Amino acid sequence: MGSELHFPADTPPFKGLSVRYEIDKKFLGRIYGMVLEGIVVTRREIDCPEKMELRYSGFFRKGRPFFAPVASKRSQTAGNDFLKVLNEDQTLMETCYKLEIEFFRLSYAPREGLWRIQVRPYGGSYVHVLFPPMRYPVDLPKEQAELIFTAMKRTAHQIGKTKDT
Fold it and tell me: What are the residue ranges of helices labelled H in 39-141?
């Protein structure tokens, strides 16, 4: 299932916005998980890790949300100023606390000045089980769809207003 749904190229603040499905193969079944991806282009060199993700503090219960760098094989010398900007944005953090998602990832390609904002919600997926034979969609509640888009737009806004280094 390699199809993607692309929105008009000028969907502010994104240069591109798409929805695709990633296939998770399970024993006797598959899950088609929805991934929303927004592309943001910036002409500025931003001092930040190339990959970041949203995490939550707490072990048993969902705690405070925060963005953290994702370890890479390449040594990173980039600063964490942009992570600080994201983590201190109370509006963004309050929105992220309400999200029901598998992941919220940011990746930055400095040469192209290109950002990818990816979110995979729990809802919006499709489950296919071979035994017993079942197929069913997992609904994405309207409130979650609005929260996801709000968080993606707020993150894109923070990318856009980051000062030159």
Answer: 81-87, 90-98
pTM (predicted TM-score): 0.86
Cross-strand pairs, 136:
127
- 84-119 confidence digits (pLDDT tens): 999 999 999 999 999 999 999 999 998 888 999 999
What 13-21 contacts at long range (C-beta under 8 Å, 24+ apart), as own/partner pairs, is: 13/40, 13/153, 13/156, 13/157, 13/160, 14/38, 14/39, 14/40, 14/152, 14/156, 15/39, 15/40, 15/41, 21/125, 21/126
| Run of H or E including 161 | none
The whole-angstrom separation of Cα 34 and Cα 8 is 19
> Could you tell me the CA-to-CA distances from 66 to 73, 87, 97, 153 in Å, in that order?
22, 6, 9, 17
